[in-house]
Structures are given as structure tokens and as C-alpha cells.
Amino acid sequence: MTGDTNSAVRRASFTIAIYLGLAALALPQARETYAELSGVRLWYKDTGGPGVPVVFLHSNTGSSQNWEHQIPVFTAAGYRFIAYDRRGWGRSMAQPGAQPGTAADDLRALIKFLGIDRFHLIGTAGGGFLVFDYALSFPEQLRTLVVANSIGGVQDEDYLELGRRLRPPQFDALPPELRELGPAYRAADAEGTRRWIELEHMSRQSGATAQAYRNRMTFSVLESIKVPTLLITGDADMYAPPPLLRMFTSRIAGSESLVIPEAGHSAYWEKPEAFNRAVLEFLKKH
């Protein structure tokens, strides 16, 4: 009788092990490689696992490498972290010539490639343009939006004029690190500043063709966004200072906002603890 019992236990243990093994195989695996999509090879990193996916969109002066302060934190919090190099940036490789489709189409193709249903979408600076464009085009796929340090691609003339008045003369001629990193950070962290500059130099591909957006961004269009939205900027952000942030919060119903002290246009990099904490608290509510 004891032999029969032991045999049954072994069979049950073997069966459980098989089921656990199959379940592990079914989970998304961690990888850093290319997604072969129509007209483009997008380089992406995906921590895999069973967590809710969070997709990060880099700035126009960065790439997927710029999220090094976010990957371990969001993974430890149980999320599936995904970042990629947008077409024309980093290691992504597009076919020569005019770029077909839009950045939102590329993201949608990547999401389908990865087998994702719904996800959180986070973008900083130029990546925030794409967050809004995607939310307007495919809102049913999104759990939340986080737009940080971004002018949002809005084309209203009064908004553009206000932005020009708030920025100093010859602003666009300044080196990227002076435009995008606040003085408090540059003074306090020379090594972090050097690392940011290094990543900036590797970001945009020479001769890359800009893609169009699916929507012409205006505040009246943004008013249609119903996805829970968090808007972030830094108090030293010369691109998207707090007065501009308030224009977005007044138009996107139910949106939340945060101004991070002593941060410029790259709050995710300059103040990662404050940035990560605010974003994680927001995601947990949704």
C-alpha cells in the first residue's frame, strides 16, 4: 500500500512539474532584440514575466537606453517593462527613403508583435507627443497615460506663442544638455550629466526621416482623451514649464499633475526617485 502511495505521489509531483514548466514557457521571456515589422526593425527590451506591461517612450534626445533608472524599479514593482528605439533612433533600422505610416502605427505593430492586450504608456518630452497620438488613435488598448516634460505636439498658435515667450532668446542654439538638464542637476551630478550627454550623442540617427502623426494635435482634440492621465514636469523645465502644464490639466478631464522641484526637461533622469515614485503610485490606482 505504501508503495502505491509513493508511486501516486511521484506521478502527481511529475504532473505538477510539467504544468509549472509549461506555465513558465507560456510567460513572456526577457529579451533585448529586434522586432521584425513592416518596413522597420525596431530594437526593444522586454523584461518579460506575468506583470502588467508598461511601455516607455524615449525623448528626441534619447533612446531606450535612457531608462536605466526605471528598469530595475518597475521590474521590482512587478511590472513587465518594455522600451524600444523609435524609428530613426538608437538601433532601430528602417528601410531607406520616405518613412511610411506613423510612429503610432509602429507602436501598434510592436504591441501586436509582443502579444499585448492592454498596457500603461509612458513618454517623456518628444515621446509624449506619441503618447497623446496613440491615446487619440487606440484608447481601448491603454490603462493609463503618463506624459512627462512634454509640449505635447500641440499646434494651437496661442500656445506656441506662449512657449516662445517663456523660453530665452537663442534657446534652440544652446547645447542639448543646457536645454534639457536643469542647473541643479548639472551642478550636483557631473557623472550623470556626462552619461546623459553620451546617450544623447548615440540617440538620433544621421539623416533619419521624421514620421508624421495620425492626429493634428490641438487642445480641443486633447479634450477627447478619457484614459486616466498623469502629467509631470520640472520646475526648471524651459520647454514645458509649469504654466504650460496647467494648460494641459485644464483640458484633459480628470488628469493629475506633478511639478518636480529642481528638475529640468529630463525629470526621469534628474530626479528618478521622485519620478518613479509618482508614476508607480499613479499606476497602482488603475
Descriptive notes:
Helices cover 41% and strands 17% of the residues. It is α/β, with parallel strands linked by helices. It has one domain (31-284): Alpha/Beta hydrolase fold, catalytic domain (Rossmann fold), CATH 3.40.50. Strands 1, 2, 3, 4, 5, 6, 7, 8 and 9 form a nine-stranded mixed sheet that branches. Helix 3 (103-113) packs across helix 4. The termini are far apart.
Q: What's the mean pLDDT score?
A: 91
How many alpha or pi helices?
12
CATH architecture: 3-Layer(aba) Sandwich
The number of domains: 1
Largest sheet: 9 strands, mixed
The oligomeric state is single chain
The CATH class is identified as: Alpha Beta
What amount of the residues lies in strands? 15-25%
- Please state the CA-atom Rg, rounded to the nearest Å: 21 Å
Give helix % range.
Answer: 40-55%
The best one-word shape is globular
Annotated CATH topology: Rossmann fold
Question: Keywords, please?
Answer:
alpha/beta, 286 residues, Rossmann fold, nine-stranded mixed sheet, 12 helices
Short structural description:
The protein has 286 residues and is α/β, with parallel strands linked by helices. The chain contains 12 helices and 9 strands.
